[in-house]
Recover the amino acids of this structure.
């Protein structure tokens, strides 16, 4: 039971006033950002990176990041329920039923079932993380280079194939990401690749620059191009309804909460990650199982409770491959990996031994963050609605300022800012022509990792390619990657569901 | 700017053609074809660069020249598939929006490639951004930020000068002071005596 004492000492760290403050800042900023449509947790964390690098200890930074992530998800559900513009694709499912509930004057019940469901799912899956992270890490010690190569392939391929609607556009995005990842000096031999003899490109293109460009600049240009067609002001529905949840709401919600958790956590934990699939699975399941089938599409509470729980549970799941293997499976996880590396901490099997003073407080902060959000979200709902009413010009002008500031502060170079803008123009065209963003991010961060492990494996085997098809684990992982590519063609359930709501997906499939 | 330079290509070129003119729904959007063409040409150029970098080296499986060849090769392959699909039938990838208007679901109405696009506003925003970052060091963070914020919110449709000026000044000074005094992150001081 050594993990218990580790966890307790983690709590000891988090419960210091300073770290509690970081957690509070994190969940507040996260909720604020989550409420704003089109801006996700990945961008927020990327913009906060330069600030956190000036903190003394990384612990506070990670506690804050965890808060941002959870907060952004809570905020996203508020927006999708009251405004029907899900800020991220994982909120799409709950937007369907939640917004209908709000329109029928049951907004409060929808918000409550989302918040309480998220809290329960977040807590249960954090317990799961507490229990499984260390065993997985000790298992991962036996992984070899070829296994890591296969894991990276699996993570990239499955996110590309399962997120977004068109495989070819996903693969194109992935190629772009892999290409950006190649720019700079080769990690093993130091040879320059695609640098066009420019000093600025020798160090490669930082993930922060890619994320700020694609999300902040790209999204703003995209908004700018359709200002004429967007409604002048947004009109969120008010939090209507008597009381939060009735007895009937409770009895219809608790099973979907638990089932959503049961789907979300394992899916997040697979190195095929993301929260999208479990939320849609949960929605589909609740729809088929419900005694109130007729209500679906018109505001069934199960359709909010299940997907929201799945969404939150998946996040703690995503932390398992991130912390134990160093493999990020979502854009936000990719930025978190970058921030770990910024502090010279390498997530992976050794993390729990070498950096247990950081990992356990991080896990402990997940428990605290969840609780804080429950306290923060429902009573303060009217404040979050006000956030939605920030005029669009002011909001996006401000985002551009912070984007420029973030890149400049992290690089100190005008050229790097220009590169971020250039990537932003790319992001604009990607949004316009519906190329998914997440594969680019994963390509940038997993590509170099994949190449390194590939060459490492071959160096060990003296250039014998058979390492990739003789080791059972490697073969199994690569086979899963093939399955992931074929999977979308087998059951058309997800596609069918998405056909209804897919147009929103291009908006913020940042997670 | 490595990868960014080729891509802005379709911007100006398409801006010349569709512009404000066609009000009726275009049967086949031209945009995806241009994107496909640009992607394919960019990919071929990058593949050629990758091939050029191999030079006289012996190409072993662990050479650092392998990955560029594979990645740019993938790029060319996928861009070609995409391009051909757009040439054959763009509605395959971009189905025309069905006109079913679910009562007043305006919020959910996003644009598709079929909708007309306003090139002027994003171009202006991009110009402002470049001006902003060029002035950042000579003029200093506070001045350039306040000016950029005003300009950008104006371009993005704000007409409330007084509010914007107040926000611009508070934002620029606030961020500058917070970063330099509290966080010890250096920002260009510029011409203002701060």
């Amino acid at each position: 039971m050594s993990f218990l004492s580790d966890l307790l000492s983690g709590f000891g760290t988090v419960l210091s006033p300073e770290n509690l403050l970081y957690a509070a800042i994190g969940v507040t900023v996260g909720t604020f950002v989550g409420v704003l449509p089109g801006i996700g947790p990945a961008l927020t964390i990327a913009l906060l990176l330069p600030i956190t690098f000036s903190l003394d200890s990384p612990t506070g930074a990670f506690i804050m990041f965890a808060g941002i992530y959870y907060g952004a998800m809570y905020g996203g559900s508020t927006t999708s329920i009251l405004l029907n513009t899900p800020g991220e694709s994982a909120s799409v499912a709950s937007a369907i039923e939640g917004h209908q509930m709000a329109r029928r004057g049951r907004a409060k019940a929808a918000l409550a079932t989302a918040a309480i469901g998220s809290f329960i799912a977040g807590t249960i899956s954090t317990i799961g993380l507490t229990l499984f992270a260390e065993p997985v890490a000790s298992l991962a010690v036996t992984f070899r280079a070829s296994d890591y190569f296969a894991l990276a392939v699996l993570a990239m391929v499955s996110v590309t194939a399962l997120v977004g609607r068109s495989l070819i556009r996903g693969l194109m995005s992935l190629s772009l990401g892999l290409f950006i990842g190649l720019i700079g000096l080769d990690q093993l031999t130091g040879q320059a690749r695609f640098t066009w003899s420019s000093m600025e490109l020798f160090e490669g293109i930082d993930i922060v620059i890619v994320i700020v460009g694609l999300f902040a600049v790209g999204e703003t240009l995209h908004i700018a191009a359709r200002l004429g067609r967007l409604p002048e002001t947004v009109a969120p529905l008010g939090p209507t309804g008597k009381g939060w949840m009735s007895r009937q709401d409770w009895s219809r919600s608790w099973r979907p909460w638990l089932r959503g958790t049961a789907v979300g956590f394992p899916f997040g934990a697979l190195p095929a990650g993301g929260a999208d699939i479990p939320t849609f699975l949960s929605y589909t399941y609740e729809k088929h199982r419900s005694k109130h089938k007729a209500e679906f599409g018109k505001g069934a509470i199960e359709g909010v409770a299940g997907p929201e729980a799945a969404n939150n549970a998946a996040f703690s799941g995503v932390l398992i491959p991130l912390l134990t293997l160093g493999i990020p499976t979502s854009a936000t996880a990719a930025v978190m990996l970058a921030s770990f590396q910024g502090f010279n901490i390498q997530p992976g099997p050794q993390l729990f031994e070498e950096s247990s003073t950081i990992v356990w407080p991080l896990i402990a902060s997940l428990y605290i963050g969840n609780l804080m959000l429950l306290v923060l979200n429902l009573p303060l709902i009217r404040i979050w609605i006000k956030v939605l009413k920030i005029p669009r010009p002011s909001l996006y002008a401000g985002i551009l300022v912070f984007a420029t500031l973030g890149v400049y502060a992290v690089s100190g170079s005008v050229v790097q800012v220009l590169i971020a803008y250039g990537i932003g123009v790319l992001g604009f065209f990607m949004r316009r022509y519906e190329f998914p963003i997440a594969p680019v991010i994963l390509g940038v961060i997993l590509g170099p990792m994949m190449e390194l492990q590939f060459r490492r494996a071959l160096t060990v085997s003296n250039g014998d390619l058979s390492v990739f098809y003789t080791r059972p684990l490697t073969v199994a992982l690569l086979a899963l990657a093939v399955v992931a590519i074929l999977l979308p063609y087998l059951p058309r359930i997800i596609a069918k569901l998405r056909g209804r709501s897919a147009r929103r997906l291009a908006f913020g499939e940042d997670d | 700017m490595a990868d960014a330079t080729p891509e802005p290509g379709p911007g100006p070129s398409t801006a010349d053609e569709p512009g404000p003119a066609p009000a009726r729904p275009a049967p086949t959007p031209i945009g995806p074809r241009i994107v496909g063409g640009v992607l394919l040409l960019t990919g071929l150029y990058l593949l050629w660069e990758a091939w050029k970098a191999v030079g006289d080296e012996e190409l072993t499986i662990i050479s650092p020249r392998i990955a560029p060849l594979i990645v740019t090769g993938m790029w060319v392959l996928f861009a070609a598939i995409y391009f051909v699909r757009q040439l054959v039938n763009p509605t395959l990838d971009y189905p025309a929006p069905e006109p079913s208007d679910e009562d007043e679901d305006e919020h959910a109405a996003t644009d598709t490639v079929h909708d007309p696009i306003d090139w002027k506003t994003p171009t202006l925003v991009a110009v402002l951004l470049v001006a902003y970052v060029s002035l950042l060091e000579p003029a200093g963070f506070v001045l350039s930020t306040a000016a950029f914020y005003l300009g950008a919110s104006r371009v993005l449709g704000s007409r409330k000068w007084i509010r914007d000026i107040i926000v611009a000044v508070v934002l620029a000074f606030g961020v500058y002071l917070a970063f330099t005094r509290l966080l010890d992150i250096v920002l260009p001081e510029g011409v203002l005596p701060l």
Chain A is about 70% helix and 0% strand. The beta strands of chain A are 184-185, 192-193. Residues 2-502 of chain A form one domain.
